[in-house]
Automatic annotation (TrEMBL):
Positions of transmembrane segments: 6-22
InterPro entries in the cross-refs: FAD-bd, FAD/NAD-bd_sf, Kynurenine_monooxygenase
Family: Belongs to the aromatic-ring hydroxylase family. KMO subfamily.
Swiss-Prot/TrEMBL catalytic activity: L-kynurenine + NADPH + O2 + H(+) = 3-hydroxy-L-kynurenine + NADP(+) + H2O
EC number(s) on file: 1.14.13.9
Annotated source species: Prauserella sediminis
Top-tier EC class: oxidoreductase
One of the Pfam families matching this protein, by short name: FAD_binding_3
Residue ranges of every copy of the FAD-binding domain listed in the record: 4-331
Name this protein carries in UniProt: Kynurenine 3-monooxygenase
Key word Transmembrane helix present: yes
Organism ancestry: Bacteria, Bacillati, Actinomycetota, Actinomycetes, Pseudonocardiales
Keyword tags: FAD, Flavoprotein, Membrane, Monooxygenase, NADP, Oxidoreductase, Pyridine nucleotide biosynthesis, Transmembrane, Transmembrane helix
Cofactor(s) needed: FAD
Amino acid sequence: MTDDVAVVGAGLTGCLLAYYLARRGHRVDLYERRPDPRTADAERGRSINLAISERGLDALRRVGLEHRVMADALPMRGRMVHPPTGTPVLQPYSADGTRAINSISRGALNNTLLDAATSEAGVTVHFEHRLTELDTGKGALTFATPHDEVHAEARVVFGADGAGSAVRGHMLAQEELDESLDFLDYGYKELTVPPVDGEFALDPGALHIWPRGSAMMIALPNPDRSFTCTLFWPTGGTASFASLSSPAAIERHFRTHYPDLFPLAPTLVDDYLANPVGLLGTVRCTPWQAGGSVCLIGDAAHAIVPFYGQGANCGFEDVVVLDRCLDEADSWQGALELFDARRKVHADTIADMALDNFVEMRDKVASPMFRATKAVEHTLERLLPGRYVSRYELVSFSTVPYADVRRRVAAQQRALGGAFALLTGGIAAATARLSRRNRL
Ligand SMILES: Cc1cc2nc3c(=O)[nH]c(=O)nc-3n(C[C@H](O)[C@H](O)[C@H](O)COP(=O)(O)OP(=O)(O)OC[C@H]3O[C@@H](n4cnc5c(N)ncnc54)[C@H](O)[C@@H]3O)c2cc1C
């Protein structure tokens, strides 16, 4: 199985995939619609940094890239929850407070992966090549470039071209898959907190959250000691991105709802006016592959909302799963079918969990009940090491497949529910005994 492979999209997943495939001995052509990001300005409006956790690190570690990527990462050991008034509270991610997710610059990560891919003799990257046509049966690709139209062929084509995948679009047009796109009525906008006197303006060891019911702001640290804030808010309605446009109204809004953040963000009003509102949605499609010759991977197959910080992690994990399928199967068809059969259920699961986590981050993290539940969870994790593990830990600090995480958490909750029922039943019986005794 050493045929020529085309990977469309040199984003995070596409670069890592090209690297893995080249190490297996394949000749890989990697096509990217944008110019080389190592020489061009970064694209505005995409998240500037993201959180990489165990699944992503595992995929990088397997091919010796973890240390290169982690050199610039900033560990975040918990959520720092900022109430509208009062002192922020740190909620550690793990029972012992040591486990961290890692804030990484998207651009730096992409460049490291591009460098890795292009260091392999078998990889050729073609920038400014936008896929416009794909005949999936023949593996015939057509690209628009700044100069002319380019035609290419490959035995296998991977669509790693993101949520709006052109490869998926062509599979759909050729009736090779069904898809559903569910957009949230929320969008996101990025704002900046610069360093103060050369230092971080907020604790860089935490992911900061301002939960405000129908809105939520988060901030992740950057190596240059700034923070990138992302405001999640409805796109339309009375309290929404659409409702706020004048500088005075923007200033009033942020002073009122984010009083500790506003003084730290001197360019907030300008950022707000200049930066676009990004859309958030979930892409589901099936099957991911057609005829053993074309296959979707990463966001192209399963874009999810960002509230679990798992989109890129999941894309990297796809590459590991595909690599295993290639080990096990003796044909491309066998490997791609196996990949599709094995992986989709897990991608569907994290898509659902990411939607659930939005409600948790936006509404629940600020409540005393949530904090108490987390404290109980951490206590159970300490008392029953390896036997009780919270959903967050299993998702972020393990490589337990996502659907297995869901099953395991449900089983833990049933067991806890049983223990709770026994406990409350015991208390009720004891109370009844006491009151009988008192009547006697
Ligand atoms: C606000 C926000 C915050 C996020 N935070 C996190 C986080 O903390 N942790 C995490 O793990 N994930 C996070 N994600 C998700 C993460 O960004 C994505 O899951 C990840 O970028 C997907 O990588 P990809 O390579 O599959 O797709 P993309 O990153 O979308 O890359 C696709 C590539 O294909 C190229 N392309 C597109 N069309 C064509 C074409 N026709 N021809 C050629 N090339 C094409 C694009 O230019 C791009 O380079 C976040 C997402 C958002 C929106």
